[in-house]
Amino acid sequence: MMFISTCAGCNEPGDVLCRRCRFSLVTTAPITTAAGVRAAMPFDGVARHAVLGLKFRNRRGVARQLAAVMVRRLLPEGSQRRSADLVTWAPTSAARIAERGFDQAELLARAVARELGVPCRRLLYRAHGDPQAGRDRTARLTGPAFRSRAPRPGLRVILVDDVVTTGATLEAARQSLLAAGIADVHCIAAAATPAVVVPRSERRLALAS
Predict the structure, then answer these.
(1) What is the rounded CA–CA span in Å between residue 152 and residue 1?
(2) How much of the chain exceeds pLDDT 90, in percent?
(3) For a tag site, which of 51, 66, 86, 184 has the least CB within 10 Å?
């Protein structure tokens, strides 16, 4: 039996992401959500298909492709990259991990850490509760509860998630890390839903007004 690999972006036979879909990802612009989270791309088009392929179709190889874009766009050579002590992630619910067999945010975080050459450690544990996926926007505004640990005080951490909708999950995770003694938490995501995107031009106008 022959197993034919298909692109997670367009479902055509080929690599994990074909050349055309990789080009599509690298030509989109990074964005900032209304909550202030930086995301490498909007959650639509090829990026949406790629992320959903990672989450729901076990296309784990996509994590490396997305992480490369995240690092290049959100953590360019400079102080933010050099100051990171380690990378961690906002874990999904235990039910989702049992269903899928993995946590997509962890795969992204480990791929980001490899790109940066820094350790990746689990610092956050999710309290029992419903997953964010499937909840309406109003319900999502209250993020999940996390408990966290800090290997030592004063660490500077990059916190990774796959998709940002309201930013409540990352903010709850960030606050938990700060309360545990982490000195600085820099939040990044692979993608953000268009409903919460603040275009760069509008951000400039807001700052100028």
Answers:
(1) 52
(2) 58
(3) 184
Alpha helices (H) along the chain? 19-26, 45-56, 62-74, 79-82, 94-100, 104-116, 137-140, 168-179, 200-208
Q: Which two tokens stand for residue 122?
A: 């689990």
Helix (H, G, I), strand (E, B) or coil at 59: coil
Alpha carbons 64 and 71: distance in angstroms, whole number: 11
Query: How does pLDDT run across 7-38, given as a tens digit for each residue?
Result: 999 989 888 899 999 999 989 999 998 888 99
- pLDDT given for residue 139 in this prediction: 44
Question: β-pairing, 38-42 with 31-33?
Answer: antiparallel
Report pLDDT digits (tens) over 90-144: 998 888 888 888 999 999 999 999 999 999 999 999 886 554 455 444 444 456 8
- Provide the CATH number for the domain around residue 174: 3.40.50.2020
Q: Strand, coil or helix: what is 71?
A: helix
Is there a contact between 86 and 159 (Cβ–Cβ < 8 Å)?
no
